[in-house]
Design goal:
There is one protein chain. The mean pLDDT is 90. Strands 1-4 form a two-stranded antiparallel ribbon. It has a two-stranded antiparallel sheet with strand order 2-3. By secondary structure, it is mainly α. 59% of the residues lie in helices and 6% in strands. It has nine helices and four strands, in the order ααααααβαβαβαβ. The chain is globular and about 50 Å long.
Length: 203
Amino acid sequence: MFSPKVLDRANVIEFRVTAKEMEAFLQSNTVINLEDLKSEGKDMAESFVQFAEDNHEIEKEENRTILTDSLNIFFSELKKCGAEFGYRSASEILRFSAVANKLDADWIQDEIIDATIMQKLLPKVHGSRRKIIDPLGILASFCLKSKEGVIISAEDKIKSVQSYISDSKLNETLEIIYPISFEKIIRMIKNAIINGFTSYAEA
């Protein structure tokens, strides 16, 4: 586990390989040669530094509102288990969102928020089953939204999460808006149930 001070200053990126990807790799008989990558990024260095030095702000007010509303919801719940984020993390999340929008205009705001939850918010979450199980269930419910024209309460969303944990079936009136974060939170909940403790780091 990294210390909170490190996590405040870093984006944690989790790499996972699907069964299909592993199967394709094993069948391809590919030999990995890291020398093939040597110096391949040198032409990007100048533009990378320049981009990092520029000031970036979220241009669309709608995107900023969606992001800040989501952050406020997560902050309140994370505070209950002592994993709330500070000004530094909030500032970096806003900057990340602005840069992501500049780099790829097709990257929709919900996908950017999903990435920020995984990279900046969940890595600090850990604890015993007693301490963490309820907050994680609520965080998972924040990753869901009602389908168009359907009204469903926060309590029903939490019940749907509890049902999903046991049989991997989601209430048909709900859809997952932050799928990567939702999957991670469910794994963390299951680890808490099985081991009595859970953290972002699963190894």
